[in-house]
DNA sequence: GCTTGACGGCTAACACCGTTAGCCATAACC
DNA sequence: GGTTATGGCTAACGGTGTTAGCCGTCAAGC
């Protein structure tokens, strides 16, 4: 990816991070770089390709934010939620709707899921259930689905306690 | 809501149910009723108002689908997942993104959540964690985020077992 | 019976969207 | 020095939600 392409992806990331996916417009993106929209097509085939690069970038960010907390369930959950709250639009972009897997850098999706797999002790069912819980909590919070004033820390603790319970203890 | 308005909402529901939210276009909606797009604005202030009515309708549907399974956790979970898989686009519409609460029929959101609250034994933390898990499982499945061939029944069982565990037994 | 007004359709148009076609200046390379 | 790739540009197309303004129908009131 040439230098110009990286600038475009960075600008697109900033645009989404600030105003959400709907703010990412080819014209707005061009304007941010002092360029007209059609010129962007000299670097990317279409808008979806730019978005895919932003997703790749965000997944690497998320993996990086999770890595230091790997090993401890509640720390990992806190780091996961913290990233989502810090970058709600990026979180939504990479974790909602169909994923353009064929456009993503290979391995990046697995890398983001690795800490969770590790904390689940290699039990895929447990890992998937945990992932669903964490994603559910985060996305419902981001979308304002919980009643205003709801004690979400408490709900998180309750859920994590259930998963940490004696059902299937970590094998390591 | 007059007769014509109901026809519009029904057509909109059908359009979304068949092809997803993106298929709901004011022009397509009009065409389905033998009418031009601008005429729709004689019945609704904008597209968002039509969508809000469809959301209200879908929430009532979901509540109706959940009611027979109330009381039993795994039955309730099965009914929840079944509705989502039967009407993925409607599920996404009503459970993703910001909710236009001020446009929804009052009480409809609570009614859809009631069976879950009941099965959680009145424990709001437990109810929220369960909701997050169920929504997470469903939306990740709908979005194709799980690996192809993943045994999701098994993941559901694992998660439900964790929540049904001795952490906080039902109080009734 | 005539007038008035609401209702519910219509066309034309605007601003914005992603995208394509085609032109052109610069710069590197043989 | 000519050739070619790079990376800009304008103009335009078809699609989107939405607005303005026109007009036929039909019921109510005088």
UniProtKB/TrEMBL annotation, chains A, B:
Gene3D superfamilies: Homeodomain-like, Tetracycline Repressor, domain 2. Residues 2-62 form the HTH tetR-type domain. Keywords: DNA-binding, Transcription, Transcription regulation. Residues 25-44 bind DNA. The keyword Protein transport does not apply. InterPro entries: Homeodomain-like_sf, HTH-type_TetR-like_transc_reg, HTH_TetR, MT1864/Rv1816-like_C, Tet_transcr_reg_TetR-rel_C_sf. This is TetR/AcrR family transcriptional regulator. It comes from Amycolatopsis melonis.
């Amino acid at each position: 990816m040439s230098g110009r392409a990286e600038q475009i992806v960075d600008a697109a990331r900033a645009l989404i991070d600030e105003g959400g996916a709907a703010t990412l417009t080819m014209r707005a993106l061009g304007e941010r770089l002092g360029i007209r929209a059609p010129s962007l097509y000299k670097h990317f085939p279409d808008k979806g390709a730019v978005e895919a690069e932003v997703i790749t970038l965000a997944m690497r960010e998320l993996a990086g934010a999770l890595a230091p907390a790997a090993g401890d369930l509640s720390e990992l959950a806190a780091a996961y939620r913290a990233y989502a709250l810090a970058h709600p639009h990026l979180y939504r972009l990479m974790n909602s709707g169909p994923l353009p897997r064929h456009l993503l850098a290979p391995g990046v999706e697995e890398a983001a899921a690795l800490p969770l797999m590790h904390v689940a002790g290699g039990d895929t069912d447990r890992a998937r259930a945990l992932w669903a819980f964490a994603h559910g909590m985060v996305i419902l919070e981001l979308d304002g689905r919980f009643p205003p004033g709801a004690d979400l820390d408490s709900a998180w603790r309750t859920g994590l306690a259930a998963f940490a319970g004696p059902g299937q203890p970590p094998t390591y």
